[in-house]
Queue: 4 jobs
Job 1
Amino acid sequence: MGETYETYEIGMRDLRDRREKLVRLTKLTRLTKLTRLTKLTKTYETYKANGGYAVNLTRAIIEGWLKVEEPEFSIETFRRKHEVSPESSELYVTFNRLMAEKKLKRLGHGVYKQIKLVEPVRVFMNRERRLPFPLIFPKDFDTGMEMGFAEHVIIREGDVITLGGVKNKGKTLLCLSFCGENVDAHPVLMGNEYTKSIEDKTTGGLVDVPAPRFYNRLLNMSWINWVNGDGTDKFQLMPIKEDYAEHIERDRINIIDWINLDANQLYDIAKVVEGIKENLGRGIAIIALQKSDSADKARGGQFSKDFSDCELLLDQFGNNGDDILLTVGTVKEKTKPIEGKKFAYTIWNGVKILNFREVVKCPTCYGKGWKKSGNTSVPCDTCNRTGYIDK
């Protein structure tokens, strides 16, 4: 009986303790709510007295606003958006401190730029040497050999190959040849040459289809197996004719034929190629560009070379429109000097590369195609007025 009474007393004490804790917690909650309400009322009253501007600014609050702000912004727009008084010193003090810490940059005229914070990149930390990118260059159809200079060119992941060519001088053939030789790597094709929009008779909307000339060329390149066993394409055709950087497929071969810019924007080609390069990952890009006759650079001049890792230039060779002169331009990594070397070949039916060979300047006319004869000049019969002879 004594044990039962003692157990009862312990239970009652425990119950009384719990009731007292609950009463204290209720009072504390009411007090907290009242305190918060009082602070909120005072803040609102101060807000009204301050002319409708935010008060009690802190660096933490300002940095919180900056996290959701645009990379570049006007301080006046920023101030009005967050209702900060023009007389507030905290905003300007915080901005000055952030600039000193290289987190913010003043661009002038009240415009600021947020500086992206980056971490150092560790170099020697469980890394393996990366092998060159396994790219197969176009081949001579008769010999089955890659272009003669290809064995000396080293292409790395993230590289860009530019093809600067005169109009109708084989840029598309090289692009399709690169695609065909590397088709098992599932390359991506995009650009002005490959797709067109037609009206869908069923829906009345526009639908993208392969351009007829492009499709016929693929059929004529019958030695390439363009499809998988289930009939799907081994490559990926994208109906993209602008904003290429946004549509680059990372870690793959991206072939763009060709990039068209307005005449007054040719200098922008460097930014366009840079954007493409940044999105390649472990892939590469092959980009066709237009070039003027006999120019030593694609349109855009030096800007077209800035981000090119391997530059190939295409011109007409002699008087035959199907004969091409290929000049190796800038090559960032090679196993022997090849920059400036020239090669000639013939395009057959728009799809085959024939008689690929290295050529050098004619020793008779010195590359001019004409030689002196008395007081006049006559066509050079050593090189048939091409300016070059086979090496």
Note: The first helix runs from residue 2 to 49.
Job 2
Amino acid sequence: MKAKKFWDVWDNLELSNKMLQRIIFFLLAVTIINSITILKLATRKKEVLVIPGAIGRMNIEPGELPDAAVENFALYLIDLYASFNPESFQERMHELMEYVEPSQFTQLKKEELSSIRRVQKAAFSQSYVADEFKLRKVKNAYEVSIIGTITQFVGDKVVLNERRRYEMRLAKKYPTERNPLGLVLAYLEFSKENSR
């Protein structure tokens, strides 16, 4: 009787061992597959560009420039130019100058120097909110028209609130680390826009 019980236990142990071997091989295979996948993900190079003014995430293929990226960049430049307070004026103008074509640099620098005393002395600030945007691709450039509302303040008092149109031309140059789109401000002009 003891021999029969021994062989019953032995059969169960063999079955248990075979089952455990299958489970171990399955777990080993899953571990190897996971390791290979993690290694591939960790070593895969994916270039990430931080586009000035980008509002969200977008995928850009090499040699391709989506309109959304150009629009975000143009709005960013207008925000640098048209929205400021006395504390941020110089910093914003210097940042704008990094994206200006050399032919426009002198004009914008003169404008900055002539405005700096007025802005700081009178506590002058302004805010521009764009609500219409038009983009047109021309040879190696983009022509952009932005319409919005500009509000100017002296201290806490509103001194101007009007519709304004900004016309700009963004020329395509070579991308850099600071300017991965390779767009530079080649032309900027504004005019009063008739109310809607």
Note: Helices lie at 2-43, 67-82, 89-97, 102-121.
Job 3
Amino acid sequence: MTVDVELTRPCDTDEVLAALAAQGLEGEVGDDCHVTVRAEDLAQVEHALDAWSWEKGLPFVPHQVDDHSIVLAPAAG
């Protein structure tokens, strides 16, 4: 399946792609702040994004939009 990931900051694109690759996921840069990821399921992508955000100390969490989309955005507080 393909998963569309919307990032909060365009400067994170390369690091996110590297983090996805470290988890065995293949992604490519899309338009604006989007990354398209090929994965077995959405949970794999969510886990990789959450781990990257935590490792970097960023206040972002993955929010599932629908069956094929995730937004990496600040946690609701």
Note: The mean pLDDT is 94.
Job 4
Amino acid sequence: MLVLSWVVVGVVAGAIAHLILRDRGYEWIGEMLVGVSAASVAGAIGPVVLGVRTGSVDLLSDVGLYCTVGGAAVALAVLVWLTPRRGGQVSRVSTGS
């Protein structure tokens, strides 16, 4: 059940990130894959690091869901922040020739 929540949260977060990125980024599937990957890593490792769960991924917990949502949100926020805009001005470096 928890693994399914990782996928759902990652897909939803990826779709939202795609709407923010519009014409830049990695298209629908790329943002969704980043969201699912980040949600699954954060959802599996977060509760164990916080000492709430001892490694079982078959139980659905509040902390696991919070870590899942937080991990997907942070990874996609970094993706949106680091993705350059297309069509922007590019500074050209003079080579002196």
Note: The mean pLDDT is 81.
